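> Could you send the histidine kinase prediction when you get a chance?

Sure thing. Input:
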Amino acid sequence: MRSLRRYLVTVLIALFTLISFVAALQSYKQSVSRAEALFDQDLQVLASSLSQQYKADSAQELGLALQVWQQGKLVYRSALAPERTMSDAEGFSEHNFGGKRWRVFRQTPNDVLTVIVAQPLQQRQQLADEVITASIYPVVLSLPLQAVLIWLVVSKALSPIQRFSAQLSSKKANDLSPVELDQVPAELDQMLKTTNQLFARLGDAFEREKRFASDVAHELRTPLSVLQVNLHNASQQWQRSGISDPEGSMLALQSGVERMSALIEQIMLLNRTNPEHFQARTEQLDLAGLCRQVVADWYPQIDNKQQQIELLGLEHLSLKGDAFALRLLVSNLVGNASKYTQTGGTIQLELSATQDKAVLVVQDNGPGIAPQEYSRVFDRFYRVGGDRHQSGTTGSGLGLAIVRDIVILHQGQIRLGPSDFSSGLKVTVELPL
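Output:
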């Protein structure tokens, strides 16, 4: 099991050392070449100064000015040198003549001979720039190569982390299986173990939650069913015995049991439709036909409240989804609209489609919901106004929470807003086709 830190440090140091050595070697070669040229030039000047029988002015070709004096008499000067002495001081100095600034060297080896050589300062600066450029150029050229090599090395070193990230990104919400990687580096090994341990703990927690909600709801069904039967029998016996119930105790008991039974059913549905562990069976279905079935199921209650319900828009709307979950979604929306809309009210369903979405709108002309409550009504067990809802209708506060979970399960969106009627609520659900 190798270490990413050790790998990166070792490889990068080796690459920097190699590239720096190659760049320095190239700079050394360039500098030596320029130095050799300068030394050759010095030899040519020396040869020119010692020979007075040449016909070509080599000093002029090299851009130098040369004077040779014997016993105070000028015996030789190059074309660029003036007739007067270029310098009266021994050694190096700087003077102006010929419209330029010169670096002058005067040497008097004996009392008879004096040699004076001058070179333009601009030429010297140019030669220095060339040497410096020759030294820096290979280093600059090596920088892109270093960057490419570093990118390749770092990419290779971080490839296990990229594979780890890709596996995490590809996991579905209900997939808590361990992540498996080959050749895990030391720095990633502990992270991988911790992540897999977290998945294991989450899996156990979800399974316990699922079993708890399901077991509690299942275990409560039986005694509630027995209680409903006994309450019904007791109510019949009271009626046959002529026992009056002026305070409505029996009716309150029956209403409470019915509410408890409905709450248990909602809890089981909420647990079943939880996106974290719902196993969707996706199929191609007709959302319009599904809406017609839901309207038919709710029609007795709607007719009993003398409400009007209509289904507008597309007669067929095909999409991929879970038939049970989508039917439950439409049923909760229609049921809420019917329960909280007054007698004689209107409920409207409308189906439409965009290029990639199916759109279901359910609205009514009931009392509606205040805009500041739109986000809260999706919370579990939350009801506007609490248990004392202004409509007087009993409820568990789980209907819209279930609807939201189903929308999330299908990767859709849900929005609440004011109805197109004079009052009421409009629910817009968008589902991918």
